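User: Could you check the structure of this?
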Amino acid sequence: VPQREHVVFDLVWNSVGPRTRQAMLIAGNALIGALALVGLPASWDYVRFMAREGTPVLGVPFSAVFLPFVLLLLALLGRSGWAVWQALRGEASPPP
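Assistant: Sure, the predicted structure tokens are below.
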């Protein structure tokens, strides 16, 4: 979903100055990236653990079933890092 279509409650966002908005962008994206980074090792261990079993009908390894979640965490980590980088450079796109 594009950023402009997100539902936001921006009462605080609109009441602060540009420097505080930049700090809020950095803090929010850093928090999301940190949480993704914390969850990544355990998720990868689970995917590797489930490689030894297959789905009952198709016989596809469960690692292939759960691998997209690890890829999602990696994408979230990359997107959060990029958003923090843009906010530090002053190029971030604020919420609408």
